[in-house]
Design a protein that fits this description.
This protein has about 240 residues and is α+β, with helices and mostly antiparallel strands. It has 2 domains: about 1-75 and about 85-120, no CATH class; about 130-239, Cupredoxins -  blue copper proteins (Immunoglobulin-like). It contains 4 helices and 10 strands; from the N terminus they run αααββββββββββα. The chain is elongated and about 90 Å long. It starts with a helix and ends with a helix. Mean pLDDT is about 90; it is low at about 25-30. The structure holds copper (II) ion (CU). Copper (II) ion binds near residues 171, 206, 210 and 217.
């Protein structure tokens, strides 16, 4: 009895680890040109899975607790419980088996998070680079052809890597639509990349309090069809 329970608890743990590692191995391939992952969608999925996980576990425990509260409630104030004492094997089994079941899901979600983070830190080879400089209190963007603008416009379908620095104090480049935030500091270059998969006009805001006009440090970030982007960039290049 004791042996069986220990064995099943251990195999539960083993299955959890195997499941998590295989999920990790499957989805951790390096993004090549033209197939950059949609990391914003990935973060949304992961967040929803965490919420579902919390709801399911919360409901199971809540229902079990209410059921036991009612079923085993005392019928008089003097009543003393008569439950049999758990054997060592039972105690270990009841602790390890549920833990293995719930941790299987935790390992799985953690593996997905690591995979996604790896994608988020590895810039796709075909990404277009835009240099970003933070100033009190505006953003400046420099395109590969040297054109400088104060709004960020990008072509749909091309991954964009931003190489960022600051001229004065610490700022933070916050792109809520692409689920990204990264610090921008003087004397250092930080980077983020995002995949504009559809047309959208959205914003970047500064997410680090950087002085009196911090709240005015925002501008538009729009993903437009490639032809529209080219025309806009040519016009901006003329000044
Ligand atoms: Cu700022």
């Amino acid at each position: 009895m004791f042996k069986t329970r220990i064995l099943s608890a251990l195999s539960g743990f083993g299955a959890a680890v195997l499941f998590a590692t295989s999920a990790f191995a499957q989805s951790s391939k390096q993004p090549g040109p033209g197939d950059a992952p949609d990391t914003a969608l990935g973060w949304d999925h992961l967040w929803n899975e965490v919420l579902i996980d919390l709801y399911v576990i919360g409901i199971i425990f809540g229902v079990a607790a209410i059921y036991m509260l009612i079923k085993y409630r005392a019928t008089s104030p003097e009543q003393v419980g008569t439950a049999p004492k758990l054997s060592m094997a039972n105690a270990i089994g009841w602790a390890l088996i549920p833990a293995a079941i719930f941790m299987a899901d935790d390992f799985y979600l953690a593996a997905k998070g690591w995979t996604l983070w790896e994608h988020q830190r590895n810039v796709p080879e075909d990404a277009m680079e835009v240099k970003v400089t933070g100033y009190q209190w505006y953003w400046e963007f420099e395109y590969e052809d040297g054109t400088v603008t104060e709004e960020l416009k990008v072509p749909v379908g091309t991954p964009i890597v931003l190489r960022m620095t600051s001229e004065d104090v610490i700022h933070s480049f916050g792109l809520p639509n692409y689920r990204l935030t990264e610090d921008v500091m003087p004397g250092r270059i930080t980077y983020i990349w995002f995949n504009p998969v559809r047309e959208v006009e959205t914003v970047v805001t500064c997410r680090e309090f950087c002085g009196v006009s911090h709240s005015e440090m925002f501008t538009t970030v729009s993903a437009v069809p490639p032809a529209e982007f080219e025309a806009w960039l040519a016009k901006a290049a003329e000044g």
